[in-house]
Amino acid sequence: MLFCVSGSAEGAEVTLAWDPSIGPNIAGYRVLYGFEARRYLYAKDVGNVTTAKIELPEGGTEYHFAVIAYNSMKVPSPPSEEVVYVPPHRPRLRLSADTNHIRLAWNSSPGKGYRVLYKPDLSTPGWSPISKVLVAETPSMEWTAPFNPVAPSAFFKLEVFQDPLAAPTLQMSPLDESTVALEWNAVPGMSYCVLYKAPGATDWTLVSPLLTASQAHMQWITFVDPLEPLGEYSIHVIPDPDAPPVLNISRSNGMLTLSWSAVPGRAYRVLQKGDLASTEWGLASDILVADSLTLEWTTPVDGSSEARYFIVQAGRLLNPEPSTSLKPVLRGQ
Fold first, then answer.
1. Which of 74, 76, 222, 261 is exposed most, by the fewest CB atoms within 10 A?
2. Nearest Cα to Cα of residue 189 among 280, 270, 113
C-alpha cells in the first residue's frame, strides 16, 4: 500500500493519501497515528476513501502515521508502511535519559525562545512549564534536568517564542490623579523591570522590583506626584536572571573598579585570590544588593606587582519575585 502525507500551512492538520487496498471485500480504512514509531495512541475510522485530513494532537514534534484496511466483517489488514511528518518551523525534540536525568535536544533558530513543557500522561489536561525561557544563540540547543526514573510515563513538548528579547510595547494610562497603570505584552517565564526618566533628566532610574511574567500580558501600577510633570517609563527585558555576571575591570588613579550587569534585588559579593592555582577564594566585599541594572565596586591598589584575581558571586533575590498568577496587578512605588 503506497502512503503519502502533506501538511497544512498552519501545521495543525495533515492530509493523508494512499493507494486502495488490493484485498477482497474492503469496507473501509482506519488511520493510526502517534508521536513515536509504531506506537499509535490515536485511531480514526475514515470510511471507504483513500484520502483523509487528520487534526494533529498537541504534544508532538513529529507524528507517525499508518493505515489499515478492514473488510465487511471488521477484520483488519496489517498496517501499511509508516510515514513520519515533522511540522514546518517546529523544532524536532530528541530525548535521552540516564539513571536520574533527562536530556532534551532540538534544532533551534537563533533569537527565538524555547520553554520545555511537561505532563505525566496524555490524559492530564494542560501542560506545565518546567524550564525557563531559553533564548537560542546557535542552531541547536540542549536542556538537562533531574528526573524520576521510576515515573510510569512522561511527555514533553516545546513552547516557541518568536522574539522574546524584543522591547515590549508599553501602554500607560492614568487611573486617577496619583496612580498610573503600565501594561505591556510579555513572554511567560521572562523577567522585566520598569525604568523611569524624569522630565529633563538623561538617566533612567529603576522603579520596580524584578517582575516575572506568568502570562502574555503584564500590568504594574505605580503612584505619581500629581503636582509634578510626568516623565517617561520604559520596560527592560532581563534575558536570564540566573546567568552568571559578566565582569569588567578598570584601573585609574590608584583605584581598581569592578562593574557588572546586575539583576535588581539580587545580592552579590566580590571574591578574590592571589594565586590562580589556588582553589580557595577569599571574601573581598560586603554583600552588595543591586538597586539598578549595573553594580560597581572599587578597591585601592598599590604599586606592587602582586597579582590579584577577582570573581563576582551572585546570591539570592532579597526582594521576592512578584507572583503574577496570584496578584496580576502589582503595586509599587
1. 74
2. 113
DSSP state of 265: T
Instruction: For residues 24-46, give the mean pLDDT.
Output: 91
pLDDT band at 1 (very low <50, low <70, confident <90, very high): very low
Res 176 pLDDT > 60: yes
Give me the helices (H) in the chain, please. Answer: none
pLDDT at 4 over 60: no
Domain with CATH 2.60.40.10 in the chain: 3-85
Task: Give whole-number Cα distances, 327 to 175, 250, 321, 323, in Å.
Answer: 18, 43, 11, 6
Cell of 220: 504594574
Q: Which fold has domain 247-317?
A: Immunoglobulin-like (2.60.40)
Please give the backbone phi and psi of residue 142, each rounded to the nearest 5 degrees, phi first.
-135, 150
| CATH number for the segment(s) 93-161 | 2.60.40
Model pLDDT, residue 293:
86
Q: How many whole angstroms separate alpha carbon 77 and alpha carbon 178? A: 74
Query: What residue has cell string 497515528?
Result: 33
Residue 83 to residue 80: CA distance in whole angstroms: 9
Query: Could you tell me the CA-to-CA distances from 90 to 11, 73, 163 in Å, in that order?
Result: 9, 41, 15
Cβ distance 233 to 198 under 8 Å?
Answer: no
Assigned architecture for domain 170-239+323-332: Sandwich (2.60)
Q: Is the pTM of this model over 0.70?
A: no
For domain 3-85, which architecture applies? Sandwich (2.60)
> With DSSP H G I counted as helix, E B as strand and the rest as coil, what are the percentages for the chain, rounded to 5?
0, 50, 50
